[in-house]
Fold this protein.
Amino acid sequence: MTKKLRIQRGFLFALLAVLVLGLAGCGKDEQPDDVFIADEPEDMGEGDIGDESAEAPSGETEAAAETAPAEEPQETQPPANVEMSSVTAPDADTDVYEIVLGVGSDETQAIVKWYGTNTEAGTVYVAKAAEMGGNTFPVTAQIVNSTVSPADYQSYMVNAATVTGLERDTEYCYMVGSANGWSSLRSFHTGKEGQADIIVTGDIQLGTGDNDGENVAAWNRIVADTVSRFPDYNMHLNMGDVTTMAFEDHYVNSINNRLFSDYVTGVVYGNHDAAGDLWNKHFSQPNQSDFAQRDGKANGNFWFKYNGVLFMELNYQIEDIDILVDHKYFIEQTIAANPDCKWRVVLMHYSPFSSVAKYQDYSDQNREYWLQVFEEYDIDVVLNGHDHAYTRSYMIQGGQPQKSDATSVTNPEGILYVTFGSASGSQYHDVNPTGYAAKTLQTYTPHVSTVNFTQNSFKLTVYDANSWEVLDSFEIIKE
Ligand SMILES: [Fe+2]
């Protein structure tokens, strides 16, 4: 299609869309219409990740196709003063796999990673949805080239690019790719000042047992439900253990979806992620610290902040008792560098208050240390995974549970610890509640949760990801 014809067709679509919809932007549920002008992709060969004709790892594509609602193609018209480029996102991904919109240093940044086969630098195009013309980027689109490094998996390369200058309360569209092929349009929504609306998932851990195909299908359904229920949320946090064995074909089943590409996503380093070297290749680690690095891997703790909320990720593994103090130094330095954040959140795979019997030994072992450190540095909330069961602690103060049935506290002195259940339903552990737990749940169903920060409030809501019944909620108010 020539550029002139494409513009004419785009104009007709735009006129129709304005008449019918009166809307602009690239929502998560929209299907692109036009095609990008990139070169023909090279032959990928069988067995490539994300190759729909390949045997494995599939499942995601078929399941997503089954669950995704059918949408009419939409073209939208940008404001009259926005000049369009000739760069248009295609309607399907080519030579782009496992796009993760990783958390950046703060709310103005995001670190995009993806796999492709081109050994040359790739590119990210980013623009405000309001300035897009359907799937065509304005000439003012931000263009960022990626760095590329071998994925050490077949012939794939890891692309990484940092997007900057993101504004608050804005919907953005982006696409990634290279001369070998481009992604379809992705989008995300930044938070308002002081606000972070976050989807939280516990262990996904695909690649478990003989029924992994069922687990993959269930996870794809959960992702589709979640994305459709929380379209304007700003962030996705996963509490670690994305896969069981850290194999690439398990990662692709877990992360090759809109939950990872259409929300700024932070992923905690779990013990199963530590089984391989893939976690670093898929997920961002802004402000990475030398503290708590192990085995020469680029896996030290990292932090980011988002609209006044400071997140500190601790790559804590239970065998690393000798470097516990590293985590303390990391927290001390991070808070010293970010004294202005209203909320301080620790992200850590292991809980100091496990409700699963077989995990309680190491919870007991290091609890005193963690509680002392978190209280010393005035942490508000600690978010955990690993248990495949849900636990909300009482407010813990001076190492002691402040026992109460209240589901809202105002100006508490203590710290809240939340352990999120399985996000995919691939594995559940029975619970053995302790005296620290205000709420313990093993529903033998997958859970998806939300956390909503404002300048003065933290609100937790836990959903059964099958029925979407609310299983638990809790609120902290700071007056
Ligand atoms: Fe784990």
